[in-house]
């Protein structure tokens, strides 16, 4: 008999039932959180909650566990957002900017596993999911990717089914606006024009020009380095635009495909010093990932345009 009064046989039976759903739960948590380490934590928490609950009358254990892991992920996303929404200052400046004095946000890093996740889900989708609010992300992932009914999604986000449908719809429009089919050369050409306008506005100190090409809810993320595992985050066009204009201009910047996405690199002595990767929503820049750490820069796939 265990300490909580549950027999060993009962515990083994619960564990076997849970293991039958572990792969599905891990997939849900992966797409919700974008991090293998955090996904495993969420799945483990779902097991703890199941082991403390009476599931004998649960007809659809898979659905019940999906709802549980969804709630866990929602709490984790909200906690992450509250930590990340610190002023970035100049940490997310355009090429050549300074990151001194920026706010650092700890973030778990598991590069190899998260690279596999990105391959299975799609880098563009993962990037755009980070621009959604936690309820929007949960509604989209559960309904659109895993077919969870809106009634069940509503219970997780504590909204009406109609409100859950609206959350998923907003997320869907944002995701669809950011995905770029490889054969759509006209769309890719417009994105390069936006990159040109962004770099020109940053170089010339044109605040209004920056606002014209940035999504109002743009997210700019700057990695602080391999040893610290930290990141700095700026949200909103005005916040990022102000930080960008406070930075010194880049010495030499040029177009580049950064991990297959439109981007820009700064060259110093012929060497890539930093790289920017962009994601777009409705012909505006919605996400800017800025990589400055030499080891991370060296691992990027940087190609010519």
Folded structure, characterized:
This protein has 305 residues and is α+β, with helices and mostly antiparallel strands. It has helices at residues 8-33, 36-51, 61-84, 111-121, 123-129, 134-145, 150-157, 161-178, 185-204, 207-213, 237-245, 294-299; strands at residues 105-106, 214-223, 230-235, 253-258, 261-268, 271-281, 284-291, 302-303. An eight-stranded mixed beta sheet has the order 1-3-2-7-6-5-4-8, with helices on both faces. Helix 1 crosses helix 3 (61-84) and helix 5 (123-129) crosses helix 8. The longest helix has 26 residues, at 8-33. Residues 1-5, 85-123 and 224-230 have low confidence and may be disordered.
Distance between the termini: 66 Å
Classify the beta-strand content into a percent band: 15-25%
N to C succession of SSEs: HHHEHHHHHHHEEHEEEEHE
Q: What order do the strands of the largest sheet run in, or round the barrel if closed?
A: 1-3-2-7-6-5-4-8
Stated plainly, the CATH topology of the largest domain is called: Nuclear Transport Factor 2, Chain: A
CATH architecture title of the largest domain: Roll
Q: Report Rg.
A: 21 Å
Shape: elongated
* Whole-number count of domains: 2
Q: Structural class of the helices, strands and pairings? A: alpha+beta
């Amino acid at each position: 008999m265990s300490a909580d009064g549950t027999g060993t046989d009962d515990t083994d039976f619960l564990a076997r039932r849970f293991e039958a759903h572990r792969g599905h739960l891990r997939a849900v948590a992966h797409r919700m959180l974008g991090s293998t380490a955090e996904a495993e934590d969420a799945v483990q928490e779902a097991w703890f909650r199941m082991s403390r609950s009476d599931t004998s009358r649960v007809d659809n254990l898979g659905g019940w566990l999906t709802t549980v892991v969804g709630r866990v992920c929602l709490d984790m996303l909200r906690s992450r957002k509250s930590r990340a929404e610190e002023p970035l200052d100049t940490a997310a400046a355009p090429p050549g900017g300074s990151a001194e004095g920026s706010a650092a946000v700890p973030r778990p890093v598991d590069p190899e596993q998260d690279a596999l996740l990105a391959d299975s889900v799609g880098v563009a989708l993962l990037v755009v999911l980070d621009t959604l609010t936690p309820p929007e992300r949960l509604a989209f992932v559960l309904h659109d990717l895993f077919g969870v009914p809106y009634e069940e999604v509503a219970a997780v986000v504590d909204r009406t089914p109609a409100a859950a449908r609206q959350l998923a719809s907003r997320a869907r429009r944002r995701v669809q606006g950011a995905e770029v089919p490889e054969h759509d050369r006209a769309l890719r050409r417009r994105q390069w024009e936006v990159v040109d306008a962004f770099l020109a506005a940053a170089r010339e100190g044109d605040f209004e020009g920056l606002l014209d090409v940035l999504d109002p809810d743009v997210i700019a993320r700057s990695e602080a380095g391999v040893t610290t595992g930290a990141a700095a985050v700026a949200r909103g066009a005005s916040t990022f635009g102000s930080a960008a204009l406070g930075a010194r201009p880049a010495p030499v910047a040029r177009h580049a495909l950064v991990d297959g996405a439109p981007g820009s690199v700064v060259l110093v002595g012929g060497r890539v010093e930093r790289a920017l990767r962009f994601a777009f929503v409705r012909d505006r820049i919605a996400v800017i990932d800025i990589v400055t750490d030499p080891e991370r820069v060296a691992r990027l796939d940087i190609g010519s345009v």
